[in-house]
Amino acid sequence: TTSPETLREAAYRQEQAAPLVFALVLDAREDVRAKQRALLAARYDDGACALAETLATETATLHPMLRLPLASLAFPALRRRPRPQLAVFVETLNALIAADGNIDLHEYCLGKLVALQVIEALSPASSSAIGRVRLPEVASDVAALLAIVAQHGHDDAAAAERAFLAAIGDVLPGRAQAYAPPQDWIGTLDRALPTLDRLSPAGKEVVIGALVRAISVDGKTTIAEAELLRTIACALHCPLPPLVADPLSTSP
After folding, report:
1. Residue of 63, 54, 46, 69 lying closest to 22 (CA atoms)
2. Rounded distance, CA 249 to CA 252, Å?
3. Can you tell me the distance from the alpha carbon of 172 to that of 215, in angstroms, rounded to the nearest whole number?
4. DSSP code for 117
């Protein structure tokens, strides 16, 4: 397997950061990859396209739990790029993700983290206000969020429901809330996250604590759970809970 050291170096270099993030979404299926190659070639020079392909052979051997932390390391270098370049980067990433007509959980989380970390660099004022919304006002959004995390983190519905019920009681004690994961989980998250970001700091802390509870009930953290927790914490402007350590920033 590849040394994460090489990839970490790429993340910190301005000219390699974008190709590295693209490498994380290049598809293993040849028909999809061909489409992605054309999308990349239309927007980037040959050097950047070749680098994305080279890095993709390395990121393919990386433990899946390390993929989002690696992308996060590239954000500071990306944010230093001129605005027009950032806009092209974000648009290209979204096009690569959509190339197969399907957005999976990993792609959603990566796209959302980029939007939060990189697009906020373009308009920082929008992210600085302290929220005033109280938990009972956003009960349905919190329930949907917990149901999505529970559903993606468990193979069977009974275990997912147990995780959901353990967590929802922390947030909305005494209020009956059924486990009902939304069908359109992407649309639901896109609507819920900005709403929950307007919660008071104390409310946000309760939500993150409940997410940790939902994930911890069965004693193991899946890749889907780790990626969702990382993305939600970022969207709520909260520190990442210790449950999901940053494996790349401290050790090779």
Report:
1. 54
2. 8
3. 17
4. I
- Closest by CA to 182, choosing from 219, 143, 233, 220, is 143
Query: Which distant-in-sequence residues (6+ apart) come within 8 Å of 95 by Cβ?
Result: 39
**134 C-beta neighbours (distance < 10 Å), count:** 12
Total Cβ atoms within 10 A of residue 220:
9
Q: How many residues are recorded in the chain?
A: 252
Indicate the SS3 state at residue 18.
helix
In one-letter notation, the amino acid at residue 151 is: Q
What CA–CA distance (Å, rounded) separates 71 from 96? 15
For residue range 221-251, what is the model confidence (pLDDT) as tens digits? 999 999 999 999 999 999 988 877 665 554 3
Both tokens of residue 17? Answer: 């950061």
**Position of tokens 């690569």?**
96
Q: Which two tokens stand for residue 22?
A: 């693209």
Half-sphere exposure of 38 (CA within 13 A, CB side): 6
Q: Are 207 and 142 in contact (CB under 8 A)?
A: yes
- 3-state SS assignment for residue 104: coil
Fill in the amino acid letter for 194: P
| CA–CA dist 12, 241 (Å, integer) | 24
DSSP 204: H
pLDDT in tens, 166-186: 999 989 888 878 999 999 999
Pairwise CA distance, residues 126 & 109, whole Å: 21
Q: Which of 47, 52, 124 is nearest to 92 (CA)?
A: 52
